[in-house]
Automatic annotation (TrEMBL):
UniProt superkingdom: Eukaryota
Any Pfam family matching the protein: 2OG-FeII_Oxy_5
Name used for this protein in its record: Fe2OG dioxygenase domain-containing protein
Annotated InterPro entries: CHP02466 (IPR012668)
Amino acid sequence: GVRAARGPEAPWASWDGEEPTSLEWFNGTVLRTELGDAELARRLGALCLELEAQGGGRSVSNAGGFQSKDLTWRTDAALREFQELLHEPLASFLRRSGQGQPPAGLNTGQELCVRAVAVDLWANVNRPGNRNVIHNHGEPTPSVVASGVYYPEVGADEDLATGAGAARLRLFVPSGTLELAPRSGALVLFPTNLLHETEAVGPREGVRLSLAFNLRVRWLDRPLLRAAARGDASRILQLVEQEGEDADAPEP
């Protein structure tokens, strides 16, 4: 098909894009990959601790510790950068879960693009004795298709920064129990209805930081939708005002 002009700043991933080499799959349903760089991990870690210091959290799946309220409304540069890095991993997750096929009814005559949109996003700060009890994030819908967790930099302790000795994420996959140790800069995606919990942080393990979220997929199968995703008002107007032509004609 015709490839959409992407550019390094395009807010989407190509459905036909190459799989990143850092992907790890567990049980065919859980994806782990590295996301961003060490500087982003440090900035997001600092944000988690700042939110904890401000207080005003909530109690949902956390037994002790701090869980923030929804962060999707915030304009922090680190959070915006983090969310723009989620398009490629979500496309990989959907390719595997859909056995390489996009949903029926999409326009596949041109390049199909995938945009990830966080519909819930919150920070967790667990200290010794704190944990997250067994829970899931609800049944998937045609649009809310994945849940995930990202591990920011936890601080100066090198052992903790590499995940050594840190409280593990326990996922109850169909084949049994999958346990993953936190690793700074790592992203884990899994089905929204997959039961999971975290171990209690040990007495000498310091602090455990994470960002948890649910993702909505936006299928960008037309030039008009891609222009809207970019916020390109002039391109939107051009497409809408085309006379005698289909607004979804291939992009110039």
